Each structure stands twice: as structure tokens, then as C-alpha cells.
Amino acid sequence: MTKFVESSFVKNMRNITRESYLRYWDERNGGNVSYRLTAEEVEGFEDVSDVKRTYELGFDASALAGYYYLVTGTGCHFRNVYDNPERDLGLVKISDDGQSYDIVWGFEAGGRPTSEFPSHLMSHIERLKVNPEQRAVFHCHPTNLIALSFTQELSERHLSRLLWKMQAESIVVFPEGIGVIPYMTPGTTEIGQATAAKMSEFQAVIWPHHGLFASGTSLDDTYGLVEVLEKAAMIYSQVGAQGGKIQQEITDKQLQEIADYFNVAPHAGFLD
Questions:
Q1: Is residue 116 annotated as part of the catalytic site, yes or no?
Q2: Nearest one of 35, 47, 41 to 71, comparing CA atoms
């Protein structure tokens, strides 16, 4: 029988956490990832069986009852996940009443999920309502995107338009735009609730002066969303480095033409 550590799920998580660290998106123990698995996908792995430890969630996650989540550990450094997946990753199962979770694989040194795990689960609940195929939530610290939160109006319309206009593919990848919450203390139930409320409308939400929460149907899809957002913010930063005077731009009419061609619907009211 195959061990879970050899699965494609763990392989993808190892690769993405390493790539994110190398891009300086997840310094030290910053950043966290969770990925939803079904019971059928977990069956058959010889090392996924006994409950190691059980913890209370502190909120109602009954909408996710019975689901499994592969998640990064609290305090773990992304640069170490690739070489130590059984220590820095864990597979947990949400209880039938949605009030607790069991660790059924990983976290071998006694670890537990990221402190942002409630925020992840709250976002998973909302994204499942939008698209039942949504599986991944990724929190990271993209440098140029964070910089925008210091220099730009914290308006969803303004930031969405700015990022759309930096490259033609932006509006195709995130036509709904980008969500924004006020600055809040990370790791709290309050920031999880605020993020989840935005996740009902946006696949990606900026935490001003801190980072980004992104979601998608797969780890690759979600990581790709972050890549496009950060590339657009990087282009804007380069424009500023070259004097900041824009001589020409992608117009609203051209953005709508791109959206029509790729059959996506821009967020209502974000284009003139």
C-alpha cells in the first residue's frame, strides 16, 4: 500500500510551499496553505488511519463535516516543508458536528495546523457555496501587492482596475476583481470572518499591510492566481521606478473586449 507522504497531494504541497518561499512570499514562518480532500481520495493510504490528536475549532464548521484538509503547521517555515513534510504538514478530518478536528497524518513532532486554520475553513465554507469544486486556500505575503496597500486607496474598485490595467491577462484570471478588508490582527476569529465574507464574492482578498488570501480549484490554480496578481503589482512598481508617468494604458473598452473574448464577466460597476 502507498504511504500518504508519497501521494500527489503532498508532492504538490511540498513544491508550492518551496516555490513560494523562493519568491520571498513566505519568509520565516509566514504563510499557510490548506487543501480539501474527500474521504474517497484518502482511502487506501496505509499511514492514514488512527486519530493522533483532537482539537476544538472554536466555531461551527459543520458545513465541512467529514472533509479532510491537508494543511501547513503552525510555526513551520515554508523553506523546510519540502524536506520535512511529515513534520510540517498534517492531514486533519473535520468532525461530524463541525466543532473539532482530528489529526490523522503528519505533524509528527506534535504540531498542529496553522493559527490561521479557522480563517481557512471559514473561507472554504464560502467558496464551496460559490463553486463546489473549490479546494485550496493559500495565504502568503507577495511583496509588490503588499506595497500597494501602503500607497493606494484601499478600494476594491480602484485596486481591481489598477491590477487589470497592468497586463491583459489579469481580467481573464480574476474578472471579479480583488477584495479588501480593513487592517486587522491576524490569527483571530474576526479576521477569518471578515475574509470569508469577502470570499463569497472574490477569489482573492488583500489583508492591508500584511498579505493575501487566495482560493482556487487546485493548488496550481490558486498559486497561479497569486502569480498573476503579484506580476500586475510588480509591473506597477516598475512603472513607478521608471518615473511613474503612464503614456498609454489598457482602456476600459479594451478590458471589456478582452473579457468578452474570453467569456468572463468583470465585476459589475468596476469598468466605466
A1: yes
A2: 35
Q: CA–CA separation, 218 vs 6, rounded Å?
A: 18
**In the numeric block, which cell numbers belong to residue 50?**
488512527
Say if CB 139 and CB 116 are below 8 A apart: yes
Question: Tens place of pLDDT for every residue, the chain, 272 residues?
Answer: 579 899 999 999 999 999 999 999 988 888 899 999 988 898 888 788 788 999 999 889 999 999 999 999 998 999 999 999 999 999 999 999 999 999 999 999 889 999 889 999 999 999 999 999 999 999 999 999 999 999 999 999 999 999 999 999 999 999 999 999 999 988 888 898 999 999 999 999 999 999 999 999 999 999 999 999 999 999 999 998 888 778 888 999 999 999 999 999 999 999 99
Which residue out of 27, 116, 156, 176 is catalytically annotated? 116
pTM over 0.90: yes
Q: Name every residue whose Cβ is closer than 8 Å to that of residue 199 and which is 6 or more positions away in sequence.
A: 122, 123, 126, 127, 130, 179, 205, 213, 215
| Three-state secondary structure call for residue 69 | strand
